[in-house]
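Supplementary Methods, section 5.1.

A reviewer requested that the exact input to the structure prediction be made available. We therefore reproduce it here, unchanged from the version used in the analyses.
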Amino acid sequence: KKCKKKFDKYWSDYNSLLSCAIVLDPGYKLWFVEYCYTVLYGEVKAKEKVEEVRGLLCNLLKEYRDVDITSPSDIPIITPTSSDRMDAYSVWMSRKEKFSVDKSQLDLYLEEKNVDHKSKFDVLAWWKNNGAPRHPQLAAFARDILAIPISFVPSESAFSMGKKLINPWRASLHQ
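The structure derived from this sequence is encoded token-by-token as follows.
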């Protein structure tokens, strides 16, 4: 019972981050997260959890926007002469499209066909070679999230003095 209580505490602390990491694996994406949550919680609760994960991904991805890019309101309105109005319109639209939020990089990535999850491939290499050209901000985000080491040792127990792990026998180099 004590073990189950600890598991539930740590699962609730880390399941969102682990879910984000699974979504960033092109072999699984959001479908696998939805499947797992359905198995764990049932269909209704799973849909809520999946939306939480999607929302978390969107919020985290916002942090990866290029801070040097100007906002749409900063785009100057060009006052062209009558002969080049359509050229000016094309330039203005291309600048405006940079800020289109109709489909985020996350949405576009999730719409792509999954990589075969049974094939063996390096996820970080996939993001570098395949994801980065199409979804540069999402690729940077994936690199950072997927590089986080996952440990089964809770951090407070690693530094806890409750039980001393080093005793005279463990402190010795003798066998």
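Residues 2-23 form the longest helix (22 residues). These observations are discussed further in the main text.
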